[in-house]
From TrEMBL:
Entry keyword set: Cell membrane, Chemotaxis, Disulfide bond, G-protein coupled receptor, Glycoprotein, Membrane, Phosphoprotein, Receptor, Transducer, Transmembrane, Transmembrane helix
Name of the protein described by the UniProt record: C-X-C chemokine receptor type 2
Membrane topology: Multi-pass membrane protein
Gene3D superfamilies in the cross-refs: Rhodopsin 7-helix transmembrane proteins
Predominant location: membrane
Occurrences of domain G-protein coupled receptors family 1 profile (ranges): 61-312
Pfam families: 7tm_1
Function summary: Receptor for interleukin-8 which is a powerful neutrophil chemotactic factor. Binding of IL-8 to the receptor causes activation of neutrophils. This response is mediated via a G-protein that activates a phosphatidylinositol-calcium second messenger system. Binds to IL-8 with high affinity. Also binds with high affinity to CXCL3, GRO/MGSA and NAP-2.
Organism: Gekko japonicus
Length: 357
């Protein structure tokens, strides 16, 4: 299907998720532009409150993960390295949540530079997260299916891989630096932080800027995760190795939570893109539904940044043990308390169990 310039001239030049569309080329029977009512004040302040809570939980939880993993250098595995970078990505994103909270409750008041910076951190957090989880799935696949632990434990290679993940995540998010701007939306009369691309000649690659990151930064890593974990879980069920099974519980929980938080948002983005290129019918009601879906699922995606430390704390026995070791080393609790806790809980001794798991 060929993409005409006039069909896509406003693909990104809208402020969906914040209340307004203003299309002059609305193709349905309605002659007037489609205007979506502003989000109610109660909902806006509720979302802002949720963002602040998520920010606090994320800062505390991910800081603890960073402390525990960095403290236990001797028993740190490749998976720990990946999870450490995952926690760092969530920490950086958490620092932007107060800005998004104020934006939700009011309008963008922080200027153009902060608009670009916070948008990039949001995108980098998402793409680095899914790529790190994909590499964790590959690492677990090699360690369990092919028992190549000696290869996967070469940490100097992991450092280069993590650097490559960060670099790729930034490059795939670079359009935010170029096109994301703070500007006053004509239809809503408020300052928004959004893509502001002008001119009909660039319409075709506006679609590419949205679709390509989704393909290479989400769909392909998701396929890798599903394939690796399908084979890995199948092998674990065959061997019936309880220690290895325990070691997989946290990782599988992390992946499932990631999908539950981010998959709905990416489906909403896909539906919005298909509507804008004309593959699905563009109607005012559909725009309202997609706008609501984008706003709601984005909240779920943002909340993901504080969930992984909760998973480690409730499922990861070794994470709790190493956290207690950290507290003992800092003199916060006594060694007797730690030993008493360990006696009351079974500690995993699997060779592939990481510091975090």
């Amino acid at each position: 299907m060929s993409l005409q310039s006039d069909e896509l001239s406003n693909l990104f030049n809208t402020s969906y998720g914040y209340g307004y569309y203003d299309y002059t080329d609305f193709p349905s029977s309605a002659a007037a532009p489609c205007r979506i009512d502003s989000t109610s004040a109660i909902f806006k302040y509720f979302v802002a409150f949720v963002y602040v809570v998520v920010c606090l939980l994320s800062l505390v939880g991910n800081s603890l993960v960073v402390l525990v993993v960095t403290y236990n250098k001797g028993s740190r595995s490749v998976t720990d390295m990946y999870l450490l970078h995952l926690a760092i990505a969530d920490l950086l994103f958490a620092l932007t949540l107060p800005f998004w909270a104020i934006y939700r409750a009011h309008e963008w008041i922080f200027g153009n530079v902060m608009c670009k910076a916070t948008s990039v951190l949001k995108e980098v957090n998402f793409y680095s997260g899914v790529l790190l989880l994909a590499f964790i799935s590959i690492d677990r696949y090699l360690a369990i299916v092919y028992a190549t632990r000696a290869v996967t434990e070469k940490r100097h290679w992991v450092k280069f891989l993590c650097f490559g993940i960060w670099l790729f995540s930034f490059l795939i998010s670079f359009p935010m630096v170029v096109f994301r701007n703070a500007f006053r939306d004509n239809s809503s009369s408020v300052v928004v932080c959004y893509e502001n691309i002008q001119g009909g000649k660039t319409s075709e690659w506006r679609v590419i800027l949205r679709i390509l990151p989704q393909v290479f930064g989400f769909i392909i890593p998701l396929i890798i995760m599903l394939l690796c974990y399908s084979v890995t879980v199948h092998r674990l069920l065959q061997t019936k190795n309880s220690q290895k099974t325990k070691a997989m519980k946290v990782i599988i929980a992390v992946v499932l939570v990631f999908l539950l938080c981010w998959l709905p948002y990416n489906i909403s983005i896909l539906a919005d893109t298909l509507m804008r290129v004309g593959i699905i019918a563009d109607t005012c009601d559909r725009r309202k539904s997609i706008d609501l879906a984008l706003s709601s699922t984005e909240i779920l995606g943002f909340a993901h940044s504080c969930i992984n430390p909760i998973i480690y704390a409730f499922i990861g026995q070794k994470f709790r043990n190493n956290f207690l070791k950290f507290l003992v080393a800092r003199g916060i609790i006594s060694k007797t308390v730690m030993l008493r806790y360990r006696k009351g809980s079974a500690s995993s001794t699997s060779g592939i169990t990481s510091t975090t798991l």
